[in-house]
Write a structure and sequence with these properties.
- With 357 residues, the protein is mostly helical.
- It has 10 helices and no strands.
- It folds into 2 domains: 40-109 and 147-246; 258-338.
- Helix content is 81%, strand content 0%.
- α3 (42-102) packs antiparallel against α6.
- The chain is elongated.
């Protein structure tokens, strides 16, 4: 056998070189355990993991900001509640002080009847009036009209003062309520703003992830399409080169150039020998595959039959053991019955464990 160097054209050489490069790239992917076991783009997964981690950090920051805002709102609410409690205590204290100073018992209308020192406060009897003149009687109120007018005026002033105080207290309470509601509205608006920002951040992250996945899928689809197109083109070029090559067309300008009849005959014999050798090799490989498949089938069949035979043996052995155990149990029961014919009654066993001895 002689080795004949046939020159290759530029396109076929470029195609062979490209296939070699693709094979080397495929080897690098196959022998990379991480890429082979995962089966996806590792860099893309790392990018997605990093993006998810950043998204988680951003969500954590938003949550912490919202939590701090809630704490601040709670503190503001507690301060407002304490302020209202202090105002209520001050109002109550002022009311008690006002009643103590301006509404004593001595200012009531019936105080002259309940005053324990009423007799001491009475004016002495005029000297020009005798004891039997019947012009001045005990208990007679000579200043009734003046005192009544004074009490009415005093009651009117008290009423006006209480109305003014009540109006001022209501005005203060109204202002406090207005401030409280404004703070609540501001806090609610801030919470809504934070919630809207969180929704926008989530939607933006979701849109970015969706866009990235779509772009990645489109890029993979284009790569597969281009690879398939290039493979079809390379196959067509290879088929054309094979069909139009010098070996298949037997072009004398290339094949017979510089060769004698003996060399051509020897070359054809070598080619025929190689063809026959390849045919025999393929036949041997086919026979080996069929033999291996038959051996595998026979081994599997033998294993199944052996498992079934072992299962049948186990079932038969189990049945035999059950029968033997049943016979032994019957014999033991009969032996005990014959040996212990006088079985004690329950009263015999009840007499034990009655005392501590």
């Amino acid at each position: 056998m002689y080795k004949v160097d046939v020159p290759l054209d530029a396109k076929e050489a470029a195609s062979i070189e490209r296939r070699k490069n693709l094979e080397n790239a495929r080897k690098s992917r196959i022998f990379d355990s991480k890429s082979r076991t995962i089966g996806v783009d590792v860099s893309a997964l790392d990018a997605q993991v990093q993006e998810a981690r950043e998204k988680k950090q951003e969500a954590k920051k938003i949550h912490e900001a919202y939590a701090s805002m809630q704490i601040k709102n709670d503190m503001v609410g507690q301060l407002l509640q304490n302020h209202n409690a202090r105002n209520e205590k001050i109002i109550e204290k002022n009311l008690v002080s006002f009643r103590t100073e301006n509404q004593p018992k001595c200012s009531t209308r019936e105080w002259d009847l309940n005053d324990p020192d009423a007799l001491k406060k009475q004016e002495s009897q005029p000297k020009n009036v005798g004891m039997s003149s019947l012009q001045h009687f005990a208990g007679e109120d000579e200043n009734h009209s003046n005192r009544s007018e004074l009490q009415k005026e005093q009651n009117r002033e008290w009423s006006l003062a209480m109305q003014a105080e009540r109006k001022a207290a209501m005005q203060r309470q109204k202002q406090q309520d207005m401030i409280f509601h404004e703070n609540r509205l501001a806090l609610d608006m801030k919470a809504l703003e934070l919630e809207e920002q969180e929704k926008k951040a989530k939607q933006a992250a979701l849109d970015a992830c969706t866009k990235f996945n779509l772009e990645l899928a489109e890029e993979k689809r284009i790569l597969r399409k281009n690879a398939r197109k290039q493979e079809i083109i390379d196959n067509e070029i290879e088929i054309k080169n094979q069909v139009n090559g010098a070996l298949l067309t037997e072009d004398s300008r290339f094949e017979h150039k510089g060769l004698t009849e003996e060399e051509l005959a020897e070359l054809r014999n070598v080619q025929n020998f190689q063809v026959e050798q390849n045919r025999q090799k393929n036949a041997i490989e086919k026979a080996e595959r069929e033999t291996w498949y038959n051996q595998q089938t026979a081994t599997a069949t033998a294993g199944i039959l052996l498992d079934r035979e072992q299962a049948r043996k186990r079932v038969a052995l189990r049945k035999a053991m059950d029968m033997e155990n049943a016979l032994l149990a019957a014999e033991q029961k009969l032996s005990q019955k014959q040996k212990y014919s006088n079985v004690p009654a329950d009263e015999y066993y009840d007499q034990f464990n009655k005392t501590t001895r």
